[in-house]
């Protein structure tokens, strides 16, 4: 596919995915907040079957929201359903995954240093991992285990750990992280499709027919809705993870991802409890400490030059040669790379002044968390990275 067309499709799908994701997660956050802030209604409302109500002000207007114990005496003509936010988020996400990591598998998904896969093999493994992950979840959540939340949560974390490890053994680090996001995102959308919506349809049908809804529908929906609540923050991290090689470009990237899942779930627990009126700052403080500890444990190896090395002279021509041979094929006003036809992030190294300007970024991406050159496509050596580190440590001079 023409790189220019690919870039536009990428922009459109990413933008659509962002908008629909905000709509879905925003609605989810709002209804969790709403449920947890409902107050006991006055007697005249209780007589009408109202379980709780809430008053709010927003945008210059007053809002009165009421929740029925079961249903209103008469079903309204217009009933708003919240489902397409989830469905369109999944659809745009899958299309974006297909465009970037399946059509562009050779560039983004396959890392020959990890596994020498063909495009078809990589796509098959990617789709297979989503099917396996979602399938295992559906099997577990449909058993009696759903009545034992903690045990089910532990089993799901073990499943996530196994998938995370397995994916990092076959895909590029970014591809592995994105596929974990795809698995969890598909599970979340599936929870809406397989659990929450059937429960709501059964409730509406029962009210219309004057019968009692099957309580199993409600239990299924509650369990799945709870899971969606706790996976919201982890999947948001996975959506932005490709911008942060300090997490994925590490020997234990699979374990880092599991740690992030746990930490973000704990953060979500703090806010869930807070909505119920229970304030446990220890959860938030513990998560903050865990982030600091994680950052310390995965900090890049110290490549700062020794005192003896600092005495060595740096040849700016050699620095420029390294950059020109290893980086400029992408990072230029006129890239020659077969994938990137515009400089990624607008970073260009066409002259010494520009190289000096971007020295901190060069250090971050080629030395501290060496994910550049991309997939090490131009085969930058460790000696070259250390030479760049020495140049930057000496102040990134561009004059001899």
Automatic annotation (TrEMBL):
One of its GO terms (molecular function) is heme binding. Signal peptide: none annotated. Keywords: Membrane, Transmembrane, Transmembrane helix. InterPro entries: Cyt_c-like_dom_sf, Urate_ox_N. The chain crosses the membrane at residues 12-33, 84-105, 117-137, 149-171, 177-196, 229-246, 252-270, 282-299. Residues 4-298 form the Urate oxidase N-terminal domain. The keyword DNA-binding does not apply. This is Urate hydroxylase PuuD. It comes from Thalassomonas viridans.
């Amino acid at each position: 596919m023409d790189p220019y067309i690919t870039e536009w499709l990428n922009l459109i799908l990413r933008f659509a995915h962002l908008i629909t994701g905000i709509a879905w997660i925003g609605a989810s956050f709002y209804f969790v907040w709403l449920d947890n802030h409902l107050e006991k209604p006055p007697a005249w409302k209780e007589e009408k079957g109202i379980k709780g109500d809430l008053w709010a002000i927003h945008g210059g207007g007053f809002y009165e929201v009421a929740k029925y114990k079961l249903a209103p005496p008469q079903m309204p003509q217009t009933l708003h359903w919240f489902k397409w936010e989830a469905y369109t988020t999944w659809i745009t996400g899958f299309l974006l995954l297909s465009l970037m990591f399946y059509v562009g598998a050779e560039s983004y998904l396959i890392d020959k240093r990890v596994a020498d896969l063909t495009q078809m093999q990589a796509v098959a493994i990617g789709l297979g991992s989503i099917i396996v992950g979602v399938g295992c979840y559906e099997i577990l959540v449909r058993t009696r285990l759903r009545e034992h939340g903690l045990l089910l949560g532990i089993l799901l974390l073990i499943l996530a750990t196994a998938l995370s490890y397995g994916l990092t053994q076959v895909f590029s680090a970014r591809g592995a992280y994105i596929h974990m996001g795809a698995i969890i995102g598909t599970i979340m959308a599936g929870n809406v499709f397989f659990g929450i919506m059937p429960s709501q349809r059964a409730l509406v049908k029962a009210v219309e027919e004057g019968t009692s809804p099957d309580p199993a529908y409600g239990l299924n929906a509650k369990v799945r809705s709870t899971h969606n609540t706790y996976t919201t923050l982890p999947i948001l991290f996975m959506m932005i993870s490709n911008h942060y090689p300090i997490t994925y470009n590490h020997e234990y990237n699979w374990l880092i991802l599991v740690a992030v899942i746990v930490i973000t779930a704990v953060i979500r627990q703090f806010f869930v409890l807070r909505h119920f009126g229970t304030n446990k700052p220890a959860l938030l403080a513990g998560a903050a400490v865990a982030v600091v500890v994680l950052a310390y444990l995965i900090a890049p190896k110290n490549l700062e030059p020794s005192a003896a090395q600092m005495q060595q002279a740096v040849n700016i021509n050699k620095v420029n040669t390294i950059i020109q041979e290893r980086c400029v094929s992408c990072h230029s006003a006129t890239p020659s790379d077969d994938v990137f036809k515009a400089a990624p992030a607008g970073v260009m190294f066409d002259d010494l002044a520009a190289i000096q300007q971007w020295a901190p970024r060069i250090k971050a991406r080629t030395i501290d968390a060496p994910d550049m050159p991309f997939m090490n496509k131009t085969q930058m050596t460790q000696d070259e990275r250390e030479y760049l580190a020495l140049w930057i440590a000496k102040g990134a001079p561009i004059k001899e």
